[in-house]
Amino acid sequence: MLQQEYYILESTQESCLFSWDQKSGSLGMGQPVQIDEPIKIRVGQPISEHPQFVDFHEMPDPVFSKRIVEVLAPMHLYGIQLLPAKVRNPNGGPFDEPRHYWFMHVWNSIACLDIDDSEVDLYDDGNIFSIEKLVLDEKALENIEFKQRQIFELAEKPSVLLIHQSVKDTILSVNPIGCRFFKATEWNSDIVFD
């Protein structure tokens, strides 16, 4: 079952949140981008006295350390770009050097939510507010070549990033700090609070 092959990546408690330190520009517009310099990111609120810089952070877009990027880049994953980023701590003082990370720009979007079998809460306009039970439309996924569905945003709810087990296993091969994976069948919008 294809449903069993997909995971959702979430940060752990030791991972501080990141936020933009520039305008996002064309990022998030569903297409590849060209950048001339590293993306500017900062530690987001609330900022602890000693923020932990680990291998995975969320903005909510994924931001990875060099260790993870070194194993992901050779996979040549369709629909993503690993863009260099510099992360600064706004409370770090004048001698706190920016840290080097990579922002994962995901422009691959696939409509594959089985709306009949999933449990979702909707806004008044019909858009999805939250997902209580995620069920993927396996027929829709079967029609897409494997290389084009290893990482993708759920078109019906772009904040949900689905990662194939092969990519998950590659990330876990470096024993990363700051990330945890949930099977798509076990994930819900509130799982980060559990």
What does this structure look like?
With 194 residues, the protein is mainly β. 10% of the residues lie in helices and 34% in strands. It is built from 3 helices and 13 strands; from the N terminus they run βββββαβββββαββαβ. It has helices at 66-72, 138-142, 165-172; strands at 6-11, 18-20, 39-43, 56-58, 62-64, 80-88, 99-106, 109-110, 119-122, 128-133, 151-154, 157-164, 179-183. The model has no long low-confidence stretch (mean pLDDT 89).
User: Strand percentage, roughly?
Assistant: 25-35%
Radius of gyration: 17 Å
Shape: globular
Give the averaged pLDDT, no decimals.
89
User: How many helix segments?
Assistant: 3
For the sheet with most strands, the description reads: 6 strands, mixed
The secondary-structure element order is EEEEEHEEEEEHEEHE
> Distance N terminus to C terminus?
27 Å
Q: How many beta-strand segments? A: 13
Strand line-up of the largest beta sheet: 2-3-6-7-5-4
Q: What structural category characterises the helix and strand content?
A: mainly beta
